[in-house]
Design goal:
By secondary structure, this protein is mainly beta. Strand 3 and strand 4 form a beta hairpin.
Length: 573
């Protein structure tokens, strides 16, 4: 192999990737004719939150008034009644050819009835805004999309209150024009779905709902079962509210645009999500930002994946099964409640060793050591049970606030956290209990005390640990959900020059903070030395069974949680 050529190629690929991310941060905006709905992204702050930053994307720029408008005048709406070989319309401009019903003019259409093998098509002018109101509609298609939006400026689909609607594609998709139509709903225009009814989507060979532009949801109850992705928007997927039960063979929610580096993002402001996918839960080629919502998911690969910036500002997230939990070129957590169980890394910046990481192939992890990769935790509550690294940054790791509890890994080939650059902590609570083979501490640039203590034996899962100050005040307590033989503890109350008692099982050890960072770091998981301070190593005697002391930390009696773009991306009404 020509290694000089290979190295040069990797350098070019890295530059292109990073340039794309940088461009994504400043997309252009065009004027919208709609008045924006006011709103601000919330943040789950607590006493340990400091320096919290809220947004790259802003809810004000994501949704228009019309996106959220579900009202319509039934008396003036054009009615379409669907029936096998007997469909009818109150206006002659709607074309009906056997079981294919085609809308060609801008208006509001009130649709009801069923087609056992048919299609509703929108083929209007480039500037047409079409409003469809689904009133107990059932359309099945054997070889194409049940709803095909071929041409329009924007289409709004409202689910009428109290109704149940079904759009289903039963067979493999046949070519009916020059477009590759591969979804039960397939739109070549911007598509907004709202209302208070229910929409069932079944796609046995393709995607559920596809938009080749923006895909927007502002309300409704969606139940999607798709062989490929459940929801897919080429330019973006934006969700303000709604209930989503998504089962997907690939990604549950996907946005990817290889033609325009300012697009391909996912923005979630609210909603309830139950996701089961054969790949990622949410996957974006650009920014993936969560400002709210309740997520419960079981996925085969990443829970949340962004090729660029992954930002969690708020929300309740429970990932009960995944390969990696949160993955992005950068990962920023400003708030919210996150619980995740991962077979590999809990948090990962710049890709892991899975083939769905950056590069999407067996040699995918070309960014394995990247100085521009970054994990930043400014607030929120994070609970990780991991089989790999709990937190893994291929660049720097910065903690300024929040509460972080890590259980695992139960092997010496990974660490509770790992980094290739620098790791600093200046606020918040961190308790990480794992194995010592790859254990590291925070670096000496930190402004908050942190201790790494190695135990003399491995303690079983559920054995609680406790840290007390010299006056007997309990500062930290945690019952890890995995076995452990070393711990990293950090708190605003750990001060240089003070003495603390660490108890694990029935054994106590005295930790004298002769420096702000106490304990020796081991070899990092990337083959580079972790930046832990080479201070005194804490060693404890043989632990015994746990006594009945109290536990303050997370996981104790824990229930799973319920429930900088300088210019925001363009929106249209």
């Amino acid at each position: 192999m020509n290694y000089k050529f290979f190295t040069a190629l990797l350098t070019v690929l890295l530059a292109v990737f990073l340039t794309g991310c940088a461009q994504n941060a400043s997309p252009t905006v065009s004027d919208s004719k709609d008045t924006l709905v006011p709103g601000t992204a919330s943040n789950s702050a607590n006493i340990y939150d400091t320096n919290v930053t809220i947004s790259n994307l802003d809810e004000n720029d994501m949704f228009t008034d019309r996106d959220k408008e579900i009202g319509y005048e039934e008396s003036t709406a054009i009615t379409i009644s669907l029936s096998d070989n007997a469909s009818s319309c109150s206006l002659g401009s709607v074309s009906i050819n056997d079981n294919v019903v085609t809308i060609v003019e801008e208006a509001t259409y009130l649709i009801s009835g069923s087609l056992s093998d048919g299609q509703l098509v929108i083929d209007a002018d480039d500037d047409a805004k079409i409003h469809l109101v689904l009133n107990n509609v059932n359309i099945q298609s054997d070889d194409s999309a049940a709803l095909y939006i071929k041409n329009a400026d924007k289409v709004f689909v409202t689910l009428a209150s109290g109704t149940s609607n079904t759009l289903q594609s039963n067979g493999e998709f046949a070519a009916i024009d020059d477009n590759t139509i591969d979804g039960a709903i397939f739109s070549k225009a911007d598509l907004t779905l709202n209302g208070s009814g229910t929409l069932n989507i079944i796609s046995k060979y393709g995607h559920g709902i596809v938009s080749k532009d923006d895909l927007v949801f502002t309300g409704g109850d969606y139940r999607v079962n798709a062989a490929s992705s459940a929801l897919s928007g080429k330019d973006s997927v934006r969700i303000a509210d709604g209930s989503f039960l998504l089962t997907a063979g690939k990604d549950a929610i996907h946005s990817e645009n290889t033609d325009d580096t300012e697009k391909g993002f996912i923005y979630i402001y609210g909603g309830n999500f139950e996701l089961q996918s054969g790949s990622d839960g949410l996957d974006a080629s650009n920014t993936l930002q969560i400002d709210g919502g309740t997520f419960t998911m079981t996925v085969a690969d990443d829970g949340f994946h962004s090729d660029c910036d992954l930002i969690i500002n708020d929300g309740n997230i429970s990932i009960t099964e995944c390969y990696e939990g949160l993955e992005g070129h950068t990962v920023t957590i400003n708030g919210g409640s996150i619980f995740l169980v991962s077979s590999d890394d809990g948090l990962n910046a710049a890709g892991g060793n899975d083939q769905s990481g950056f590069g999407k192939g067996p040699q995918a992890d070309i960014f394995a050591s990247d100085s521009q990769s970054l994990i930043t935790i400014n607030g929120g509550s994070l609970q990780i049970l991991t089989g790999g690294d709990g937190i893994d940054s291929n660049g720097d790791l910065v903690v300024t606030g929040g509460e972080i509890y890590i259980s695992g890994p139960e092997n010496s080939g990974n660490g509770s956290f790992d980094y290739a650059g620098e790791a600093t902590i200046s606020g918040g609570i961190l308790v990480a209990a794992g194995h010592s083979g790859m254990a590291v501490n925070f670096g000496t640039s930190s402004t908050q005390g942190s201790m790494l203590v190695t135990l003399s034996e491995t303690l079983p899962a559920g054995t609680a640990l406790s840290l007390k100050a010299a006056d007997g005040k309990e500062l930290l307590s945690f019952a890890p959900k995995a076995s452990y033989n070393c711990v990293v503890l950090s708190s605003p109350e750990i001060l240089q020059g003070e003495t603390y008692t660490l108890t694990a099982g029935n054994t106590d050890a005295t930790v004298e903070m002769t420096s702000l960072i106490y304990g020796t770091g081991g070899m990092g998981g990337h083959g580079g030395m972790g930046r832990g301070d080479m201070g005194e190593q804490g060693n404890m005697g043989k632990p015994e069974d746990m006594d009945g002391r109290s536990r303050i930390g997370a996981f104790e009696g824990m229930e799973e949680p319920k429930g900088a773009m300088s210019n925001p991306p363009e929106k249209t009404n």
